[in-house]
Records
---
Amino acid sequence: MKFKINRDHFANGLAQVLNVVGSKATMPILSNVLIQAEKDHVSLTTTNLDLGIRVQIKAEIKEAGAVTLPVKRLATIVRELPNLDVAVDAAANHNVKISSGGSTFRIMGIGKEEFPPLPEFGDEKVFALAQADLITMLQSVSYAQSTDETRYILNGVYFNFKDDKLTLVATDGRRLALVSRELPVPAANAGSIILPAKTVAELLRMLGKGDKLKISFNERRASFQIATDKDTGGLVDSIYLYSKVVEGNYPNYQQVIPKETHQRIKLERELFKQCVHRAALVCSEKANSIKIKLSTNLLEITAQSPDFGEAHESLAVAYSGAEMQVAFNPAFMLDPLDALTKDEIFFEFKDEVSPGVFKTLENFVCVIMPVRLT
């Protein structure tokens, strides 16, 4: 295998696939990147068996071939090379020579036959989406994923393709976020998956490099082909992301969404967010809640803790119902307010022991359990 490549393009490609490799790989080969030279590009692939990524980079191929090299060490070396022109030459014993300007490195690799291949699909359901739509949807719900490993079924985002729409849901048991978007779903293609949190994070990092993406999935795994039609530092065609899915049945999230709320107020998102943020500045670990009090045309936000003192914010709102007060964890309120982009949101509630609900006019719902007032 022999090729010439642009240093910055090579470094960019390695950066794209680096995150998958953990610090404690169970097998030496899982710390390596598979480098395959063919036609006019080089493919870089990494996997941890649960998640795999492949990118292609433009290169001048002199001799096709493949080898695997320690990805973290290689990425560090490539970044530090003195010249833009880099020559890579692999011998039959997997000894790889990398030269650039006056610098030469020799790195021992492992043969490609030991590298676990990314699975091929055959029985999958396939959908095409706009990357911008999926970014917005994932950002709208991903903060609500659970980090409790004992509730592994909640450690991800639920994708449901049904009734001519795609619905994304995430919950940790104390809050639930849901967003849906119209999408043609033929009856034969309907289905759902739970995408692990690590895959969600990688997707968010990689999306936005082009307009389209293709998602394919079956009961055990999913793949994302992310078009890279913008100037992405030498990347060619598309990034391929493969992931195992969380196996099991997602809980019935419809039961969590209140069927009736007695009050609904319209809020200016940024203004409300700033008030909640300021009030939360006096919260502490022991006193981690803010109170929202509603009276005629007035919303008041208060917080207090024995360590720091108290805060009071007030907002004029259109409200004519009974006076009431409810308390929430401020982080649970700020997460959806940060994730949303629309200026106009609605806050619905029933009483001080029922969940609060954020909504927008664009099929977004976030249900937040209250903190009991003592």
---
Amino acid sequence: MILLSFDTEEFDVPREHGVSYTLEEGMEVSREGTNRILDVLRAHDVRATFFCTANFAEHAPDVMRRIMAEGHEVACHGCDHWEPRATDVEQSKRRVEQATGLTIHGYRQPRMFAVSDSELERMGYAYNSSLNPAFIPGRYMHLREPRTWFMKGKVMQIPASVTPWVRFPLFWLSLHNLPQWLYHLMVRRVLSHDGYFTTYFHPWEFYELNEHRELRMPYIIRHNSGKRMAQRLDRLIAMLKARGQEFITYYEFVKRNTH
């Protein structure tokens, strides 16, 4: 089983590098990137989960309608990606539900920061996907956490996939920068070991970042961005479909493993 996900947020990475960037500018980038992602998914007839900030849901209603019309799941990704707050667990659910008319079942904290498990349970979330249990110094160093899904109270925790033993991360930066044959090899290793694979990307990766050096994006982010990233996602999906893998949403995964 394949659980593809996209952190569908307003593009704010330039601000991390000292570039002034408005919400409107960030939304323009993310709208374009999200539509490029949706084109790839539609071409393969596969579904994914879009973790949306309240900002994105409210400022891109046309893109949100397309996400829903094409059968994808909408989950929460906080309110303002730049300034996560403890109240986001509650406020993002209410705002995204109001913007979409859906009942939201899942949450992912911006930048995979820690989030209150008790608050997630109080708000009725079925799952939380805010953990990258990788061997990377910093916020992704979670060697004591399980690699695969587990329960905390009533909320399923769905970590991003990492390789067995070494815990090499197979998230967005890996697909950007590794030879694609090597990335595919490690994905197949995870599938063989765990029985499922889950990863995440961002809309702004599918924007032509190399054409905008004024944004001061590091090379590891700019590398293979835009159309090249869409091609890499296309080849990844094609490889997995050729091996008979099923693509499901996160909430479908929860229901299959808890009922």
---
Amino acid sequence: MTSTTKVKTTVPGHHSMVSLLGTRDELLKLVESAFEVGILVRGNDITVTGPDEETRKVVHLFSEFVRLLDLGQGLDEANVTASIAMVQAAEHPNPSEVLSDEALMHRGRAIRPKTVGQKAYLDAIRTNTVTFGIGPAGTGKTYLAMAMAVLALRRKTASRIILTRPAVEAGERLGFLPGTLFEKIDPYLRPLFDALHDMMDAEQLALLMERGTIEVAPLAYMRGRTLNDSFIVLDEAQNTTAEQMKMFLTRLGFGSRAVVTGDVTQVDLPSGRHSGLRVVRDILTDIDGVAFCELTARDVVRHRIVQEIVEAYRVFDEEHADDEVGDRGRGR
């Protein structure tokens, strides 16, 4: 039989309870709905009553909320929900360490990891020459890579940023699109431009692109180059062939760092072509300075329903994997 515990914790007086619990206790209600405990608030005292383990988790959670406030971070539904998820899954002992890690600051807005997987991804980028961020849509793999690229430019650890992705979208080719080269490639590279606009002023971005300090180009334009002192991001890498992946990785010059992002469940290559992102892990497993970060549905930071959609598709794909192999064997 599970024993019941009552624990009281006191919030330091320099923090208002409104900042901790929400204007209408909406943050407190998030905690109450996530754990099987009773929570009583009187003044700055919070008393938690319930099963031992649940009580311990909730008390620790409130201490982490106070820690976030100490670090100058306001509490909101997003970081409270993220903290709850980390504590429930025992993924990280201190959610405040994850949520306070700053990748980039622009106009008073900090870009930070929101999950343990995103934190591990940022740490991998910081410590490795080549980092692969592999995971479904909404896990922040491209956005965080772009933030680290902009930070490298600011800190002068890179003299330029190069952003690239293969021009493959549902079987279309660049030649089928009208207009100049820039107009042809713009639809493929638009997500990268959107991220850049979030991280620097429009005038600064235009100037850096005009000078070539920031270069955005399709993957085909990387062939034959050696990229020194650069921070390079290859996005949508699941749409590279094995040959293109090798070509890209061998462009890396002295003083450069590369981040390769992609979702191996969203391959748009023509039938019969193997994704370079799917095979590269087996090839580069034992190379020092190369890291692989697997992001999952738990790292999706879009609407809650997106997490559930991603997880539902993952389960479906696993259940029908044998059917797919059988169809290929029968020549379908």
---
Amino acid sequence: MAEPNARPDVWLGIDLGTQSVRVLAVDAAGGTCGSGAEQLRSHRDGPRHEQDPEQWWSAVRVACRQALDGIPGASVRGVAVCATSGTILLADRAGRPLTPGLMYDDSRAVEEAPLAAEAGSALWERLGHRPQPSWALPKLLWLLGNHSGLPAGARLLHQADCIGERLTGGPVATDSSHALKTGYDTEREAWPGALFEDLRIPAGLLPEVVRPGTVLGSVCAGAAESTGIPEGTPVVAGMTDGCAAQISAGALEPGAWNSVLGTTLVLKGVTAQRLRDPLGVVYSHRAPDGNWLPGGASSTGAGALSRAFPGRNLATLDARAQRYEPSSLVTYPLASRGERFPFLAPDAEGFTLGDRHGAAEADYHASLLQGVAFTERLCFDYLGLLGAPLDGPVTLTGGGARSRYWCQLRADVLARPLGLPDNAEAALGMAVLARAGTTTPLSDAARDMVRLRTVVEPRPEHTRRLLEKHLQLVDALEERGWLPTAVARHARRRAHL
């Protein structure tokens, strides 16, 4: 472990989330020297989910100044940015937004996704994934189809690129992690030019792509004045928020997995070889060291709890839910319409089996917690069916990891120990990557900066009771035609081992 000192070097991690921007200043021993946060606002309307890109920069400026308060400028050694996966906009030559930011779960591109899938069928088959309506490539087609008369020099920007350009004062390369859902060929590490020609996407729209951890430039004078980050500080190419959380969890060796439970559920792991997924719901980012980072994003998650109990103290509900193991209900708790992982069902809707209105409030809350845990297990079932190694450590991050009871429940349902990092924030992952891009290899930087707080052990007697309800959910998903039979059979086999 690196030894702390009175005035340690620090690296900044910036996390552009859905609801806020979070910034951490972290030293080489993993200590948080400063932090800042600023809220973001969204506009939602059915499949539409937009944000104003200008507020991203405004929030970054505020959060950076908070994080750097009291930290000597000479101590800041680098900065990296993560953002939501698949969030894009069109900008003019100077980087000024021409469109709103279409967020990660904006799913208006329902007509464009099949076009992209058909045009790039050979590419998607080779890469093992295919575009979905919420992915950036269909959304880019939607933007081009709905915004005619773009000025000369118009460009595609991913959410993180927007901040990178503000920090450096000019155009920057995007990273391969954020570019994946725009159709970037992570295997050959190039844009598929023939595909974009077939889709009539101008080549001039597309940014250069580099691996995460590459230095993109340095903080310009104007950004230094706005943010407090010293002029000349290296700006390092980041990754998507799911990958950032994976770094913050230290899940960087083949067989290790990180489960990020926030508004939705994201699983990320490490494999030496890229997984091939016939359903196209598992996609693999490329790690800075060349390994593959397979994973997927489910539409279940804590967002379903917020929808069911708006404004309520969920910790109080968690305490009461412990009396219902298992719940008398079986709930599939989607945070929004449509499922993306462990199966693809754009029309899927959440449901509850049993007398929802006759059940106690705590019983229903328990069914939501359990339903997310059951879906999480089903995600691991599917990854195992694809041949992914599942024998490494599993860590939990995201807002859901703050609930000790929910962590225990998830350990029971998964029937395996689960590690809880001391600092589970995606911003920490970006601070680690900023250090890796400037001074230290990523694995060494993570070994120094990532700390495990505790390990939650499963309770076998609880596992047995809960898996009966898990299998009821598997049956219900299969009966609705959403879960493929082969996946359902594999889930049942694993439950009976």
